[in-house]
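Worked problem 6 (solution included).
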Amino acid sequence: MSRTTMIRPVNPQPARSTMPWGRLRVILLVALLVGLGFPASLLAAPPSAPANFAVTIEGGFVVFSWEASPEADVASYQLNFSGAASGLLDVGKRTSFSYVPPPTLGGGFRFSIAAVTSAGEASPPSNEVSFSFPADLPRFVGAEACARCHEQKVNDWRVSGHPYKLMPAREARNRPIPLPAGFTWDDISYVIGGYKWKARFMGLDGFIITRTGADRDVPGKNQYNLENNTWSDYEPGVQKPYDCGSCHTTGFSEILNQDGRPGIKGTWVSGGITCENCHGAGSRHAASGDPTAITKDSSATLCGRCHTRGAADSIPASGGFIRHQEQNNEFQASPHANAGLQCVTCHDPHKKAVFSITRTCESCHSQQAQDFTGSAMQRLGVRCQNCHMPKAMKSAIKVKDYVGDVQSHLVRINPEVTAQMFTADGLQANNAITLEFACLSCHADRDKEWAALNVQGIHALGKESTAMAR
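Solution. The predicted structure is:
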């Protein structure tokens, strides 16, 4: 179970108004001097200090957090630290970050945070926090430690896609993954994916490879699609940093650069989604076997940390398909979420998706299952998910019209002929599967009007004197 400890600030600041009088006087003075001809760049007022800076312990992470300075021109924040080591660290415009300290890091520190404007003006420091990294901080111990007691769970996990979300080149080169034209394995630091849908590649500088060819001057042809053995373009020619570590790695911290590679934003303990990404740092549990010393969260919220794109109450779309890895966005819009189900109601999260089903549709929908048994659709091999969970999501490739490469979790079908799957601009999906995806993905020679005419009573079609419209 994760532990949260608040470190008491040395000199906490009282609450402030969003526009301190001192700051306002400085702004008025600057405005006056600019009016008299002084260059504005020389008169820029520093921002206010961030408020309520704190350091907490959450599981195996040390978390730094603060309230944003109110000024609009703040471009980033700078962590000041002194003690066992001293320095300044730019942490970007975020107002919190987590850090996994190495086991060798000890001794006491004093931390504060300052706001920095785009002109380089720094605020006064926040309240200062004294902190020592505790010797008993939970540590990430790796899946092999888990396997000593949970061998079957770890074996199930090894077959799933989770371990392969990010692989170092030394591991990826042993898998059946080709390389972009003009590159050898000695040019690759990491492979992103490479399990089922696609593989992208990072160069030795940590940036995603977006130019290929003998002279590496050809934009694109940098994403390998495993399903159909093709290459496609991903951000062709763009200098693209890797900033997806929060959902592709375990023990992720938003700051610094993994292996010192400038193109990688953040650091991690291990690549891929391992046991401890969901269960938390496991050193205490591994040492004691205490079931309370590990996190067990069966909510959809946990899965949604990675299987959500943007806001959970929206369903981003592009190119006529729902964008990939939005299972939680779809689930939250579905009848299943309203009924109180969770992802683990139907799935064993340790297993490969195709083997993970623990509860089938007829477990809850007994009447529909009874109607469907012996129907024309069932005799043809159609299953519930073919219509209610069609491949309306696209990760790597469009197979054909209305067929992507990832199953939808919207489940509900809107049978109206006028229903639209997407908003007018195509950037959001609506909250139900439409007839194009439910019916025309197979019946490509038909249209929505035909589908709307035949969809009523489809579960029992062929059992009585029902017949499809000609």
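Discussion: Confidence is low (pLDDT under 50) at residues 1-19, 466-470.
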